[in-house]
Every structure is written in structure tokens, then in C-alpha cells.
Amino acid sequence: MFWEESARDGAQAKTLMGAGFRVRLARETGRIFGADGPRHVVFAAGFPAVCADEFEAVRQVAVEAEGAVSVAAVCRGVDRDVEQAVASVRGSGNARVMVVVPASDAMARVMVHRTANQALEAAVDLVKRARDRDDRVALDICLADASRADTSLMAHHSQALTEAGAGLVLLADTVGSQLPHGCHDMFARVRTACGPEVVLASHLHNDLGLGLANSLQALAAGVRVVSSSWLGIAERAGMVATEQLLFLLARHGEELLGADAAPWWTAPDLTRLPGIARMVADETGASWASPPRSSAPASAPSPPAPPSSTPSCSSPSTPTRCWASNRTSCSPSSPAHASSPPSPPASATPSTRTRPAPP
Q1: Whole-model pTM?
Q2: Residue-wise pLDDT tens digits, 235-249
Q3: Residue 39 belongs to what domain range?
Q4: Which of 223, 205, 274, 222 is nearest to 246 (CA)?
Q5: Which of 58, 205, 260, 328 registers the highest number of CB atoms within 10 A of its CB?
């Protein structure tokens, strides 16, 4: 299964996607696997707590991309954030919520002003409360900064989180500093110490150019849910590119997963990859390796990409814009989607909420 992060983690790379484009991207990504799109793709639609418009964008993806993928919302490990994230995807088939929880002492001190053990214990209680309130939305846990955390502590709490009702447990190399052998060792240790009911997933950044290598090591250690992003767009240097990982697994699956592996319900249609990559590049301004055009001489360089119409948040002349609407503000009074629940609480507006640390 692929956990697609270009719409959510990609926003942290200033590659803003409007709500309508997120819907289109989710549908196109799911079509790679035909009717089995929801079995193979979790599409992280956004972070509802950022602002009211972002909540509505996630809600729109949950409603309009239902059946193409499994739609997920991402939030912090706080009760009100979890409630809001669940509300943003409630009613959508195969909906999920990913809760970000610090796994290392260094990250826990910054995110929640606690030790890692205290943060993980609180996460177990949070999962229990969330499942008691609504068990129709799957609740996954992302252990932020897992690459610098104690593997024994993570294994113990991964088991406890699963027993409390969590679905996936994602181990994140949040700072992108992990080397391949260390990545394999981390997943192998945690997986060995947990029961078979614990389902691990990877979320690995590319700061040292090792996102793909580390993802392959996670797969070699038995992981079968891998986070990726179209064109590799994500915070800082990005993460493993969805198109790269898909192609590798489709062409070299036996070598990477073992001769007896059966990774697909429906084999991916690789002919769709270039079109989706081009679509994401046109929307975000991110670069991609375009295949040569058949009408051009073999030695002719590819034509330059058109300038992106997406504003850059780093430009001093560009006002701050909402991730979802691309407007110059995030208004808490924006109209709700026709199928959405009541508007999120006022605490979701930028004036009273801070942007959380990402996985």
C-alpha cells in the first residue's frame, strides 16, 4: 500500500494544491490500480486544523474521491484535533486519520514539552478515547522522529497502540538523517519485538538523498505500507517519489520483496505515471524528468516547463495564502461543502492555532 503525501507533506514544501486539484490527483492515483485503488492507495488529503478552508478541502476530497482511494486526514495528538480530523473524513468509505506523536525525547520536548515515554503513553489513551467516540474511521499513528528514538520504547508502545485500536503505526525519519543500514535495523527491531497484529509503515525523508534507498530497506525488513509523494515533493528535500517506487516494485518486485511475494490486488498501470507526474508538475511548478517527445530529434533538449502560476510563499511580494483555497487569507466563515458536516470550531482558525511539527 502507498501512503500518498504530495497534497499534505507537499504543502510544507510550498507546493500548494487547490482542493479541486487534490480531488483530481486522488482519483488519478487510484486509477493506477483500477477498482482496487482504495486497497493500494491512502491519500493524505491535508491537515484540517490549519484553517477552515483546509478543513473544507479535506472534506471535499473525502466526498469526491471516495471509492478511488482511501482518504486520510492528518492531525496532532490532541483530542480536539482528532475530533476535527475525524469529522473531515467521516462517512467516506475506507476513511483514515493519521495522528502525529513524537517518539524521541528530542522531538517530544519540542512538540509537547514531555518525555517520549509520556507522549507515547498519552497517545495510547488518546486512541482509546477516539475509538470509543467513533470506530468507523481508522486511526493510524505516526511516530515522529522514530529514527532518533529508542526502538524498544517504540516497539512496546506500537503494541499498546495497536491493542488500543490503532491501525497502522508509521515510523518516520522526520529529520531525514537515517542511513540505509540504520533504517533496516530500526524496522527489523521494532517488527521483531511486536506481535504479528502490529502493521508498520514507513515515512522517510530525503535530506541526504536516501529516501528511496531507505524505503527499499524498510520493505526488505517486512514493511508493506510505504509513504511517498509524486515527484518527491515534501518538506525540505522531499521524500521518495511515488512514480519511482511504483516502477521499481512493478518491475523488480520479486528481487525486492521475495519470489513468493504477491504485492498487488491489481497490478499497477505504469502507463499512467508520466501523465500524473506532468499534471503535478504543471500544478505545483515542481520539476520532473519528462520523457522525450517522439516528434523531436533524439538529441534535442526538452522544452522548458511553463512558469508556474502557483505563488511562492518565499517571495517577499506574495501575501500569505491558505493551502486549500489559494486566497490571501483563511476565513473561518468560508462556505461549507455541500456534503460536509457543520463548520469546524473557531479554534481551528489561524489566529488561535499554531502549525504543528510535521512527521
Answers
A1: 0.79
A2: 888 899 999 999 999
A3: 2-258
A4: 274
A5: 58
